[in-house]
Amino acid sequence: MNHRDRLLGFLKARQGSWVSGAWLSGELGVSRTAVSKHIRRLRETGYPIATATRKGYRLEGVPDLLEPAEIRDGLDTTILGRGEIHCLRVTDSTNRQAKILAQRGAPEGTLVLADRQTQGRGRMGRSWDSPPGGIFLSLVLRPILPPFEAPAITLLAGVAASETLVHLTGLDARIKWPNDILIKGRKIGGILTEISSEMDAIDHVVMGIGFNVNLTAEDLAPEVRPFATSVYIGAGREFSRVTLIQEFLKRFDRDYARFQTEGFSAVRQRWKALTDIIGRRVRVEMIGRVCEGVVADVDQEGVLILEDEVGAQCRVISGDVVYV
Ligand code: BTN
């Protein structure tokens, strides 16, 4: 841990109390000038730190800052977010940044976060509106799996995302196959999983997720407003993005480890308990064809099984689902 993060740790441990510069300088083994330089940087980052002569420094509160030190503090994972964490104030797309890092050899579990995206991407070439207050998160994964198993990572992330929302906010989050997280039929989150592979081996996967967290109705783009919602709108209060991210990472980390040995079966029953799609009549637009029918099941590989009036089955590996 670097000096800045250790200093922050000392202030947090004594939050609301004065900590002298002399004590900090002794603990860190750096000069008092270096301490005051770190304090200035922490303040610039957004930490409310009071200063008083002869008293020292006092941390007045911990803001909801997406900073590597905040994400690491209490993070309960084995792979995800254990190594590189990149927290960006603004970027084009965290998925794009994660992909660049992956191509340069970033290890499994590398995490990219942003406060805001200018070119957030959704599935099927759509854009993802990304104003401040949301969570925009991408992970570099390097699963040792055949490429055809990778799409189930979206379903796995959907389970972790929905369970995180239910657990922390009490909202009734539901999954719409394959990548939508809904509250009362309105979209609160979405997942975009992008794979880079050879015919028979995955090089890397970037799993990106966006959550509408502390957004008011006005923060949502007018064109998505009728179909979207946020944690703030649903629960009536703000939530810590850091806590939501840590909870999502913890849940996804556990399921991802099991997924690598058990496949989608590791979460299939939980996925089915979190969706309303089974038994619904849907139309699915796939590349080159359209299938319509009632959703009979989601199989052990995460494939959607539709059945038409005469009992003929259609297996949907990827596509856009519309309830009809
Ligand atoms: C969708 O619902 O179509 C998927 C939306 C995925 C959005 C997230 S936000 C973080 C990551 N970076 C992106 O550009 N997209 C994903």
List the SSEs and their pairings.
Layout: H1 3-13, H2 21-28, H3 32-45, E1 49-52, E2 56-59, H4 68-72, E3 85-91, H5 94-103, E4 111-117, E5 135-141, H6 152-169, E6 173-176, E7 180-183, E8 186-197, E9 202-211, H7 231-235, H8 241-262, H9 268-273, E10 281-286, E11 289-298, E12 304-307, E13 313-316, E14 320-323
Parallel strand pairs: 3-4
Antiparallel strand pairs: 1-2, 4-5, 5-9, 6-7, 7-8, 8-9, 10-11, 10-14, 11-12, 12-13
Helix pairs in contact: 1-3, 2-3, 6-8
Bound molecules: biotin (BTN).
Walk me through what this model shows.
With 324 residues, this protein is an alpha+beta fold. Helices cover 31% and strands 27% of the residues. It has nine helices and 14 strands. The strands form three sheets. Strands 3-4-5-9-8-7-6 form a seven-stranded mixed β-sheet, sandwiched between helices. It has a five-stranded antiparallel β-sheet with strand order 13-12-11-10-14, with no helix packed on it. Bound molecules: biotin (BTN). Biotin is lined by residues 93-95, 117, 120-123, 126, 128, 136-138, 179-180, 190-192, 208-210.
Which range does the strand content fall in? 25-35%
Low-confidence parts lasting 5 or more residues at pLDDT below 50? none
Largest sheet: 7 strands, mixed
Helices and strands: which structural class? alpha+beta
* Percentage of residues in helical conformation: 25-40%
Brief description of this entry?
The protein is of the alpha+beta class and 324 residues long. Helix content is 31%, strand content 27%.
Distinctive features:
27% strand, alpha+beta, 7-stranded mixed sheet, binds biotin
